[in-house]
Inverse folding.
C-alpha cells in the first residue's frame, strides 16, 4: 500500500468531528506543523486533543484553539500558550491536566494494550480527586487509565517508503509513544527515502505502526517557523 500522500488535507481525510487526536510536540519542537495547518483547513469540530501543550499563541495547535475546533485538551503544560487560560476561563475549552510522566506512561500503556496502572505521582493532590486509590506495601497509589486516540499526528525526521521512522534529537519527544497508541497514525517527515536506506539499528517507529506519510511544508528553525516549499 502506498502510504505517501501529496498534501496534508488529503492525508487528514479520515479525521471527523468528535475524534480524539494525539498530536506530537513539546512547544513547537517536534510538532507536525504542516498537518496542523491542514486541520485548520478542514471543517471539523469538537475535537479532543492529547498533547503536551497547545502550541503557542496563534502557532501550532494555538491556531486550532483560536478556530474553536478543540472541545477538550489533555496535556501537562498548557501555560506555554497563555490564550489557553483565557479560553478555559470563558468556558470555551475543557482541560484535563496530567503530570508529564503520567501523560507519557498513559500513552505507553495504551500502545502496549495495558488498561491502566498505579502511580504515586499526584497522590494527595487535586489531580487525584475522583480517582481510585490503592495502598501497596504501605504506600498509596492512584490509578491512571491508559490513553488511546482515534488518530495520531506525529512528526519524524525521516521516513522510508514503507513508513519506518527515525527522529531528530529532542524533536522525538512524545511522537514514538503516540505512534503506538492510535487507530490511525499520520506522520509528517522532513525527508522521504527509499526502502532499505534506513539502517534497522536507527529505526525507532517500525512501519507497521504508520498508516500515512506526508512531506513537511513547514519547519522550525532558530529563527522561527519557516516554509520549506
Amino acid at each position: 500500500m502506498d502510504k505517501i500522500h501529496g498534501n496534508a488535507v488529503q492525508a487528514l481525510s479520515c479525521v471527523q468531528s468528535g475524534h480524539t487526536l494525539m498530536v506530537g510536540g513539546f512547544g513547537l519542537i517536534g510538532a507536525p506543523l504542516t498537518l496542523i495547518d491542514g486541520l485548520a483547513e478542514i471543517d471539523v469540530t469538537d475535537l479532543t486533543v492529547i498533547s503536551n501543550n497547545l502550541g503557542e499563541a496563534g502557532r501550532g495547535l494555538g491556531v486550532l484553539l483560536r478556530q474553536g475546533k478543540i472541545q477538550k485538551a489533555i496535556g501537562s503544560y498548557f501555560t506555554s500558550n497563555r490564550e489557553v487560560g483565557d479560553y478555559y476561563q470563558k468556558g470555551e475549552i475543557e482541560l484535563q491536566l496530567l503530570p508529564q510522566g503520567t501523560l507519557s506512561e498513559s500513552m505507553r500503556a495504551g500502545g502496549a494494550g495495558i488498561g491502566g496502572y498505579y502511580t504515586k505521582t499526584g497522590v494527595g493532590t487535586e489531580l487525584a480527586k475522583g480517582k481510585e486509590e490503592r495502598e501497596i506495601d504501605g504506600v498509596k497509589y492512584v490509578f491512571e487509565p491508559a490513553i488511546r486516540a482515534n488518530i495520531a499526528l506525529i512528526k519524524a525526521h525521516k521516513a522510508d517508503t514503507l513508513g519506518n521512522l527515525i527522529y531528530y534529537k529532542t524533536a522525538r519527544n512524545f511522537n514514538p509513544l503516540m505512534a503506538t497508541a492510535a487507530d490511525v497514525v499520520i506522520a509528517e517527515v522532513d525527508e522521504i527515502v527509499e526502502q532499505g536506506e534506513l539502517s534497522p539499528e536507527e529505526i525507532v517507529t517500525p512501519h507497521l505502526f504508520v498508516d500515512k506519510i506526508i512531506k513537511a511544508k513547514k519547519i522550525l528553525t532558530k529563527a522561527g517557523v519557516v516554509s520549506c516549499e
